[in-house]
Amino acid sequence: MHGCLPLDGVYHTITKIEGNVIYELDGKPIVEMIDAIYGDLKWQRQIPVRRLSIGVQMGEKYASFKESHYVNRLITGVLPNGEGIALFEPDLEERMEVQFMVRDAEEILASARRNSAEIMKSIHDQGKKPVFGLYIDCAGRCASFSEMPTEEASEVVEVFNQYDVPLLGFYSGVEVAPFAGKSCGLDWTGVLVVFAEG
For 84-113, what is each residue's pLDDT tens digit? Predict the structure, then answer.
């Protein structure tokens, strides 16, 4: 669950990166590209950048958008000299294709509701009984930081209440979950674990 949407569907190639700092996409300075997206320089004062992230499409390229095929990378801020942006994770490399992703408050709430309901339905469809849930939620997804009218975790709570299943949750700085066949650090994400019997 993440609630980020591709900004414009355009794929960009990383052409200059060192560790967790991206300097260029498509041979152009990334800071200037983001300046153009925002239309001003105010975003450069945000730590971390609130609305924009870097997305890596892990599914079939150019297919219609599917949330579960994306890993998002939190932009922690712009370098003091303005030459690049720092990411929270240092796992991107030159020649990788990425997209600018926009965090959308309505989509964050809808994603939490939709994915929680789908997981619980899937457990019941398999003839199992959910007995306990654990929700690990990115602190950046809290209502005040994401400028939402309500906590998105309340959507998960509501689904669990419908099934009368206890749920424990907490906010974290980074989330880890299986993705594309391995453990993966995730940003701006909610990870839901459901224990079931049967």
Answer: 999 988 999 999 999 999 988 888 889 999
